[in-house]
Amino acid sequence: MYKNNYPKLSIVTPSLNQGLYLEATINSVLSQMYPNLEYIIIDGGSTDESVEIIKKYAHHLHFWCSEPDNGHYSAVNKGFSKASGDIFAWLNSDDMYCPDAFRSVAAIFSQFPGVSWLTTTRQLVWDSQGNRKSVKRIPGYSRAAFLKGRYFSRKFSGFGFIQQESTFWRSQLWEKVGGLRTEFNLAGDFDLWARFFAHEDLYGVDHPLGGFRVHDENRSRQTRQSSKYISEAEHALELMRRKFNCPGKNIHSIILDRIKSITILRRLAKRYNRFLEAPYNGSVISLTDPQSGNKWQMVTTRF
Questions:
Q1: Is the predicted pLDDT of residue 2 greater than 90, yes or no?
Q2: What span, in angstroms and rounded, lies between the C-alpha atoms of 50 and 164?
Q3: CA-CA distance, 262 to 260, in Å (whole number)?
Q4: Phi, psi at residue 144, to the nearest 5°?
Q5: pLDDT at res. 109
Q6: Structural domain boundaries of the chain?
Q7: pLDDT surpassing 50 at residue 279
Q8: What architecture is domain 1-94?
Q9: Is the CB of residue 159 less than 8 Å from the CB of residue 138?
Q10: Whole-model pTM?
C-alpha cells in the first residue's frame, strides 16, 4: 500500500458541466507530483467541454467515466468504490488544493497513526479566477461543539463550518460509516462529518490545505438552496444527537444565538466567549518549524 514510504492517496472529483473550472481543479491535484496518487474523476454526462478536458489528462487518471448518475453524492460514492488508497478525500470540480497539501497530509497521517481524519484550521476561499480571496481561521474542532451545532456554515452559529475541500480521512473510517448518504442533496458532507464524529475525533491542521472557489453558479450560494442546506444539516445533527443521547438546543442556546446576531454583542461575545459558554478542547497539528522540513507537532487547545 505504501510507495517509497508515501501512503496512497485516493482523490475523487465529481463533475457535471464545470468545464470552465475543471482543468484548474485537475491541475491542483496532478501538479503536486505526489508519488502515490490514485486520481478518479466521475463525470455525470457533461455536455460542455468537460469530457475533452478529462481525456487530455486521462493517462494520469486511475479511473474516469462520463455517464448519467444519480447526483453529486452518488458520484462521489461511485468514485470511492473504485479506490484502493489509504487516505481518501474528494475535491469538487470548481475547487482547488494548495500546492503542498498531499505531502503535508501524508506526513501527518504517517507521523500520527491515531489520527483518523483531519481538516485545516485555515480555510481558503478562491475567487472565480482562482486567486486567493480570503482566509478564515477556525479555533479548533470538538465533538462536543459539533453536537452543539457550532459548525453550521451560517452567520452567528459559532466557529464556522468544516471545509470539505480540506478534509482527509483514512479509508477504514469511510468503510466504517458506509460512505455518503444520497438522500441528502446539499448537506451530505455535514452528515458524513456527523457520522465520522460518532467514531473518531477530528484533528485541526494549522496549515492551509485547499479552498472553495466562489462564483455565481455555486449551488450553496443560492439563497433557497442555502436554507435547504441548513435544514438538511440540522436533520443530520439531530440523528447524531439521538445516538449520543444529547439534547438539542435549549432556551439558553437559542437566546445566546440571538445575542450573537447583534453586531456589537457578537463582537463582545467573541472576546469574552468563555463567559458565555463552556470552553471546548480540541487537538491542533502544526509544523514544528516551517523552515526545516515536514515534521509536525500536536497540541491540545481550548476555545
A1: no
A2: 22
A3: 5
A4: -60, -40
A5: 98
A6: 1-94, 96-303
A7: yes
A8: Alpha-Beta Complex (3.90)
A9: yes
A10: 0.89
